[in-house]
Specification:
Blueprint: E1 2-8, H1 15-25, E2 29-33, H2 47-66, E3 72-77, H3 82-91, E4 97-105, H4 108-120, H5 128-135, E5 145-148, H6 154-163
Parallel strand pairs: 1-3, 1-4, 2-3, 4-5
């Protein structure tokens, strides 16, 4: 049986860092970050690009799921609405899979600190702080396992994800 991990969380919460570590801890593992499926300039969110990114994500996840080399598939993306999670799960072959839907969450002060660090380093633009904070509350409404990463490192978060059954 394969495992597929759908790991969501607002921008800056630590999804990518946690997933990179998790990938190293799981056997026969592959990792896909949803942002890689529409890394474009200028960044445009339109009905057409939204449709394209969902098709890209589902195509790649299905390729990983049908490949015998992988037993663990990790996917992370913002996934702030249940419809996004359901849309992905509805388009991928999960018949022989254990599905783990997880949301990484943290408190607002810690999220501000993490994002400010990225803004100061030139990794993100300043407008991401308010956009990310505005999404925080949306994760509580999702049908996902919540993992509070406010006071833990990405390494510790990955260890917690390993214990989720």
């Amino acid at each position: 049986m394969k495992n597929i991990y759908l790991i969501g969380g607002t921008m800056g919460v630590g999804k990518t860092a946690t997933c990179r570590i998790l990938k190293e801890k799981l056997p026969d593992c592959v990792f896909l970050d949803g942002d890689w499926c529409w890394d474009m300039h200028p960044f445009r969110v339109t009905p057409e690009t939204r449709k394209m990114v969902m098709e890209n994500i589902c195509f790649l996840l299905n390729q990983f799921l049908c490949c015998s080399a992988y037993k663990n598939i990790i996917f992370c993306w913002v996934m702030h609405e249940q419809a996004i999670i359901d849309g992905i799960l509805g388009k991928i072959e999960t018949g022989d899979c254990r599905i783990h839907t997880i949301s990484l969450v943290c408190d607002e002060e810690e999220l501000r600190r993490r994002l400010r660090k990225d803004v100061d380093a030139g990794i993100r633009s300043a407008d991401v702080i308010q956009r990310s904070i505005a999404r925080l509350e949306l994760y509580e409404k999702l049908d996902t396992e919540k993992v509070d990463v406010s006071n833990i490192t990405a390494e510790q978060a990955a260890e917690r994800l390993l214990r989720i059954k």
